[in-house]
Design brief:
Length: about 240
Amino acid sequence: MAKRHAKYMQIKEHLLRGIASRRFRDSLPSENELAQKFGVSRMTARRALSDLELEGYALRIPGKGTFVQNRRSTQGFFRVRPFRKHAEEHHVTPRTRVLEVTVVEPPKEVAERLRCRQTILVRRLHYFEEEPVRFETRYLRSDLCADILWENLEFESIHEILIHKLNLPLTQVWQRLEAVGVPEEVASLFGVPSGSPAFRMERVTYTFEEPVTRVEYFMRGELYAFEDTFCPQLENV
């Protein structure tokens, strides 16, 4: 396992150096080329390419290859409070409606990020009082999270279920937050015009080296804001 992880990191660093030096200007080497060059399986090479896509360095197009992506400017630090905590701070009652819970074969991008071919799909709509404010689409690895099918997801936190009921230590989170226009499907659930301002957050949560769940949130821009408190002596501000 340690040897495979070292090879994976070696491939990833090779690709990042190539992007930074502009040696890779347009496209990146294929899975087969990387596997042959580094003496690894295609799965290990695929994982390195998938991570670069996840982090915004690359764009994978099925049947065509992996291309260098012009990255959007990002700021590396932010945290999002739990939904119920956020509601408490605004003195409103939170409510959740489950729209769908089913076992599915995930989209290719999700399958690569979670490294599995069968997942539990959960779609939920979250409310402040009677006002819909956040839409959630979540995929969980069915080999790790099958028992979540029997939980009451209208009243329970999936985060808490994973930790306390499924005994999965959640050790690392990758997440990205960006400003977007609400897509048509989500706009109809929110009762707002398509293209209205929103925040989109994507998050992948790990237990040690294993990804557990990938979630996408759309949050209404006129009802959400993000703030934090920190010590400026510990930050380069």
